[in-house]
Amino acid sequence: MRPFTPLTCIQLLQLSFASLFFFTLLLHTLLSGTPFTYLFRLLSAAPTSVSLSCAWCLLLSLFYFYSTRPRPVLLLNYACFKPASDRRCTLEVSEYFLRRSHSFSAESEAFMRGIYLKSGLGDETYAPKFFFEESCEPKFEYAVDEAREGMLSAIDALLSKTRIDARRIDVVIITSGSFSPSPSLSSLVVNHYKLKPDVKTFNLSGMGCSSGLISIDLAAKILRASRKSLYALVVVTESISLNWYGGNNRSMLVTNCIFRVGCAAALMTNDQSLRRVAKMELTHSLRTHHGADDSAYRAAFQQEDDNGTTGVALTKDLIRVAGVNLHHHIKQLAPRVLPLGQLAHYLYSVITSTISGGESKPIVPDFTTAFEHLCIHTGGKAVIEQVGRVLKLSDSVTEPARMSLHRFGNTSSSLVFYELAYFEAKGRVKKGDRMWMLAFGTGFKVCSLAWKCLRDSPEDYDNPWRDCIHRYPVTAW
User: Fold this and answer.
1) Is 470 in the active site?
2) Which residue among 289, 327, 328, 345 is the active-site one?
3) Which of 243, 325, 410, 463 is catalytic?
4) Distance separating alpha carbons of residues 15 and 280, to the nearest angstrom
5) Confidence (pLDDT) at 163
6) What's the number of CA atoms in the CB half-sphere (13 Å) around residue 409?
7) Is 284 considered catalytic here?
8) Within a 10 A sphere around the Cβ of 339, how many other Cβ atoms?
């Protein structure tokens, strides 16, 4: 049920005038006996008053339609954090750190080395500061520094590109899957940029790698619901420092091998007048939660090992869960985004499968007919390959996801923005193109965002791929 707003009064006024006008016509028609004859006489006798009544009703209807239509959700710009080159985490750096930390058995070190070599990560990803400290201990202060450095660097770059005064920001949404300090990360941003007292702040945590798209969806709902023009700042980060696992449980050691430092910030608005300078418009968003299923709920789970060391366990069932729940997700997404021809083909296959009792399976819709660009969740090499199998995507379609994993590692929920930057660095984004962002998260959640590009991708001095895009795509990953 919609909440009461002042616009309801306008609607009542509109209905009152319309009802009065048509009731008058009906009354005179009943009294005269010949409806069409009387209507003609009425219009002939008082054309001015009738015309004014019709014009007034039409004007009120147009005003109500214009004032209550959904407001656009525009992405003005975004920025990705790129750490200094001396923080690069090569295989050599990783092995040296493991030996210095004295936390792992020889078997665990060998296991992590094998995972790293098969992970699809290159030697240019970035590690947190504690990797390069003498103590090798991931303390709380390192986690705060990691969040502060990534967030403030990304926000500074974003404000520089958009030329928006930070004090004009109305909404701040910060998402970090597992790091939730007090005061909150949004309070850190408010304090640093001296934001206005009535700024609305939100902190999302515990949502895993889908939280970046979830935060965009939350910002979109706030912007669409407002009658005022607003600016919403979305910051997507994660803490590697406090997520580092120092035990020997193999299911928990995998996260040490694939997660790396990264952060992204995006500025959104519902101000229609800024469409000419905005990069993209959000056309659809969809979130599905599959946590009612136990296997999906526990596919990626933070817990203590037998020695009381906390880590995130990635079960062997994770890839299957991702594939199954992606199938459920695209069943809801397909009717919203597919062109009519592809949708009719898909519905026909569903009906045929139902009639045959499941002997023939429904086809997988070709989402490349709905989108020119796909930013696929880069949870790891196996996840990218599973998504490619489920959606029947070619290597050229999954290229941005594979190359982003190779260059930056798994930066959690911010990595879809690094993929967007890849498209732009390659000059592939053109006005009118459609883009699909897809991410998975613990719980288990699947989230999709559909965008329409409003202008060609310009040359961006702050693009994180600027100094290396000429080397991509690499053939081996």
Assistant:
1) no
2) 289
3) 410
4) 37
5) 93
6) 28
7) no
8) 12
Question: What whole-number distance in Å separates Cα of residue 118 and Cα of residue 431?
Answer: 37
* Catalytic residue from among 263, 325, 329, 373: 373
One-letter identity of residue 293: D
Determine the Cα angle at 433 with ends 266 and 176, to 5°.
Answer: 25
**Short-list 38, 61, 62, CA closest to 50:** 38
Q: Out of 57, 209, 375, 453, which one is annotated catalytic? A: 209
Distances from the Cα of 466 to the Cα of 92, 235, 260, 433, 459, angstroms: 25, 22, 19, 22, 9
- Summarize pLDDT for 409-419 with one digit per residue, the tens: 999 989 999 99
Higher-scoring residue by pLDDT: 286, 60: 286
Q: Looking at 38-47, 90-99, 280-289, 338-347, which range is the least confident one?
A: 38-47
Residue from 329, 377, 406, 447 carrying the catalytic annotation: 377
- Decide if 377 is catalytic: yes
Is pLDDT at 234 greater than 80 in this prediction? yes
pLDDT at 23: 59
- Report the pLDDT averaged over residues 83-108: 90
Mapped to the 3 state alphabet, what secondary structure does the chain carry? CCCCCCHHHHHHHHHHHHHHHHHHHHHHHHHHCCHHHHHHHHHHHCHHHHHHHHHHHHHHHHHHHHHHCCCCCEEEEEEECCCCHHHECCHHHHHHHHHHHCCCCHHHHHHHHHHHHHCCCCCCCECCHHHHCCCCCCCHHHHHHHHHHHHHHHHHHHHHHHCCCHHHCCEEEEEECCCCCCCCHHHHHHHHHCCCCCCEEEEECCCHHHHHHHHHHHHHHHHHHCCCCCEEEEEEECCCHHHCCCCCCHHHHHHHHHECCCCEEEEEECCHHHCCCCCEEEEEEEEEECCCCHHHHCCEEEEECCCCCEEEEECCCHHHHHHHHHHHHHHHHHHHHCCHHHHHHHHHHHHHHHHCCCCCCCCCCCHHHCCCEEEECCCCHHHHHHHHHHHCCCHHHHHHHHHHHHHHCECHHHHHHHHHHHHHHCCCCCCCCEEEEEEEECCCEEEEEEEEECCCCCCCCCCCCCCCHHHCCCCCC
Residue 28 bears catalytic tag:
no
- Amino acid identity at 364: V
Can you give the pLDDT at residue 232? 97
| Pair of tokens at residue 73 | 């959700």
pLDDT over 70 (residue 472):
yes
- Establish whether 328 is a catalytic residue: no
Tokens of 299: 């596919």
Torsion of CA 363, 364, 368, 371, to 10 degrees: 120
In contact, 319 and 434? CB cutoff 8 Å: no
40 pLDDT higher than 70: no
Give the Cα separation of 122 and 403 in Å (integer): 9
